[in-house]
Design brief:
The protein is of the alpha/beta class and about 260 residues long. It contains ten helices and eleven strands. It is globular.
Length: about 260
């Protein structure tokens, strides 16, 4: 088999499989995520969504199968190498320091990109050169008015926006969002949905999300997993009318 993926897909898997001591969590998944789209991965409990996500972001090694990113076989690369290639998993690689202000948090993230993340002995003045870029990122995620507020005092939704800002500091080509709306109230869900839509104008987004109204609103393509296999794939209007999908959710719940 050639080590090249085909088509205008930023990420593609071929027969991706993960087995844990006889239990097959992901079974021969062939996933294709088209460039510059929002792609959702959904399914009932135990469907294999999180395992699949962990395989893509190299937190787990596959038992068999291949993963391609920008037509390159990355099956055996480490998570740090994947991040350097531009595929970043938000809410894990980003760190929010509660005692630092919003602006200071984003500056720390920008230091990582410049390779100076451990130079905390440097004067504050030397970091001011990063302020313009940091403010651009803070404004992009809609929290500019909170720039001098300690991150620990932000609401849950705005803290998630800050986490996205610190992730964007890494200049990712592809964002993987693991349940971005988890624990949010309606107002924060709407704000975060709007943010994801803005972020996706120049990037590809793959997300695992339980909130089906969010999935319906944001996603260009939805892949439904059940028992580690792809049950269905397509736009929401097709997925929502698929009797197998309806049965899977009615039978197992989507929590």
């Amino acid at each position: 088999m050639a080590n090249q993926a085909n088509g205008d897909y930023i990420i593609e898997t071929r027969d991706l499989t993960k087995e844990f001591r006889g239990f097959v969590a992901v079974a021969g998944v062939n996933l294709k995520v088209r460039r510059h789209t929002i792609h959702a991965l959904i399914g009932p409990n135990g469907a294999g969504k999180t395992t699949c996500f962990n395989l893509l972001t190299k937190f787990l090694a596959p038992s068999s199968g291949q993963i391609f990113y920008n037509k390159r076989d990355i099956t055996h690369e480490r998570s740090a190498a994947i991040a350097r290639r531009g595929m970043v998993r938000s809410f894990q690689i980003s760190a929010v320091f509660g005692h630092l202000s919003v602006l200071e948090n984003v500056r720390v993230a920008l230091q990582r990109v410049q390779g100076t993340s451990f130079h905390f002995w440097r004067s504050g003045r030397s970091l001011e050169t990063l302020n313009d870029r940091a403010m651009d990122l803070i404004e992009a995620v809609g929290i500019a008015e909170y720039r001098h507020i300690p991150a620990g005092e932000l609401s849950y939704g705005r803290k998630r926006a800050l986490e996205i800002a610190t992730t964007l500091a890494l200049e990712p080509e592809m964002l993987l969002l693991d349940e971005p709306m988890a624990g949010m109230g309606a107002e924060d869900v709407k704000r975060t949905s709007d943010l994801i839509r803005r972020v996706a104008t120049k990037r590809t987004v793959l997300m695992v999300e339980h909130n089906l109204s969010v999935v319906a609103d944001l996603s260009d393509t939805i892949t439904v997993l059940k028992l580690g296999r792809v049950l269905a794939e397509g736009p929401y209007r097709e997925i929502s009318a698929n009797l197998e999908v309806i049965d899977a959710y009615m039978g197992a719940g989507h929590g």
